[in-house]
Amino acid sequence: MEQVQIGSLSLQLNRKAIKNLHISVLPPDGRIRVSAPEQMTDTAIRMAVVSRIPWIKKQQRDFAAQPRQSDREMVSGECHYFWGNRHRLDVVERPGRHEVKVSGGKIQLFVNPGTSIENRALVLTEFYRAQLKIRLEQLIPSWQKRIAVEVADCRVKKMKTKWGSCNIGAKRIWLNLELAKKPPECLEYILAHELVHLLERNHNGRFRAHMDKLMPNWRERRDLLNKLPLAFESWVY
Q1: pTM of the model
Q2: Which residue, of 114, 195, 197, 237, has the greatest Cβ tally within 10 A?
Q3: Is the peptide bond before 28 cis (omega within 30 degrees of 0)?
Q4: Which domains does the chain have, with CATH numbers?
Q5: With contact defined as beta carbons under 8 Å apart, do 34 and 13 qualify?
């Protein structure tokens, strides 16, 4: 990875064994990352970036305008999201098993007295993970049938730069744990997106044609995901 300056833009350039150049603008601060074919000349890379400057600037402005959640202290009164809805956290200390209940605009977090901030956060994280897996068990069979593909494994983990990823060779999909905080249609969009990669590796016209046929409103779902408050550094499609 090398640092390159093009006019007023500073970007990270990574040469890889790929066919096409890809430009990513990363939240929360609008960092620019360029992945370029190994044989692509510096001039060609520079021209490609210059041609995308209006798009790059717009992405950076959009990220700068997005609201962001403050650092979590895991205390009563904090705002937390679940399936796109804003909830007030209610921490209840009592002996017994740690658990989470959601109702009436509240996320009730039941923990033992003296439980640390880190362990309170872990309890909520595992709740999000379990809820994602339940939703995915419902979605995956129908989407596999619709796309006519079969995934060997679908897992959930925290990711800093992606909402999802697909290992095409292993037919394994990873989805970002943070999707439990977003509207359900965003999770369905990312799942479909990754499954379509089993038909087409790249984000090209063929890929978009598949998405248009399978999920005609996928762009609206993508835009909804992009506009939501950021609680972490994330890359969006």
Answers
A1: 0.72
A2: 195
A3: yes
A4: 2-65 (no CATH), 79-227 (3.30.2010.10)
A5: yes
